[in-house]
Amino acid sequence: MRYFNYLTPDEEKVLFYIPPTSFYNDSHKDILAHSIGAALYMPATRPTFAEDIAFGKLEGLVSVVLDLEDAVGENEVHEAEESLVNQMNKLSALIELGILNAENLPLLFVRVRNENQLNYLIERLEDNITLLTGIVFPKFTMENGEAYFQPLENYNDEKPSSAPTLYGLPILESGAIIYKESRFQTLQGIKDILTKYKDLVLNVRIGATDFSSLFGLRRSSEMTIYDIAPIRDCVADIINIFGRVDASYVISGPVWEYFPEKGLIREVIMDKENGLIGKTIIHPTHIKPVQSLYTVTHEEYADATSIISNNNGDHGVIKSAYANKMNEIKPHLSWAKRILLRSHIYGVLHEQQQYFGLLSKQDRAYV
Fold this sequence. Notes:
Elements: H1 9-15, E1 16-18, H2 29-35, E2 38-43, H3 49-54, E3 63-67, H4 77-96, E4 107-111, H5 115-125, E5 134-137, H6 145-158, E6 167-172, H7 175-178, H8 180-196, E7 204-206, H9 208-213, H10 229-242, E8 251-256, H11 262-273, E9 279-281, H12 287-293, H13 298-309, E10 317-319, E11 326-328, H14 333-346, E12 348-349, H15 361-366
Parallel strand pairs: 2-3, 2-9, 3-4, 4-5, 5-6, 6-7, 7-8, 8-9
Antiparallel strand pairs: 1-12, 10-11
Helix pairs in contact: 2-14, 5-6, 8-10, 13-14
């Protein structure tokens, strides 16, 4: 899989100073954690997702979350489980027939309802589970965290060594996390669990819709989650606990639940400014705008490479190549490393290019 593979070679040459590189579900964990990008949620009841993927019906798609939780009604659970198993069987068959190249398979995730369902799916999916990159754990708490990770750890201990690691992606969205009186104890308890299973934690995700519901709030389509005071306050604390350089967890931004994209673009920009990368989306028109925003500008790349190349003790501060700022070597070093990692996945734009250049005329009409 590779970002922006819908571009022609000539278009790519015009747009990119350094093009994106390929990755797969057995790539290094750091690459995968930053590669999720715009994760499109699909109900697990969707009867055509295997064909949609195999025949490229969702242009630009790189990661998918097949949802067995909120997108599935209480009376649809068994139907959704059977649909998921059947669609995974179809994907496997399409790969075996050579209709779908496994290297073009998006990163696939399943959001389960609970730990019991996770155990059930591990058994039912059999060898097809190797097509998945991870399992999304909703409403992750101190109380259920071990129960989610134990079967995941058991699976990874018992799988063939040639099979890719199956990762866990906890969603922080419970009342104990956002309520002020319990927040820090809860976050610390969750961090203790994630530390224990750190090799299996691909991503920490934020469930802002559930947070908002506890206050009877919902951001409008022109606002961002950072404009909602109690949610912004909680997100700041999540970043403080899990986003520190020494913690080294990748945190993804909350779901965008509207079709219009004006507020979405502002929110992704705010996500990036706060060190979050990755966005849950609910409509295919969101794929390209969100992914395009994760590309690295030429100026960012020039700053990052300069900082890293001068990290030899000879300089404390240097003028940027664009002569518009000072780059401090030690304070900006961690930022520079993150930029280079992102540039590897999403590419570096040419000096005069902006992310809008990655969108087609039809895509631009939605933005």
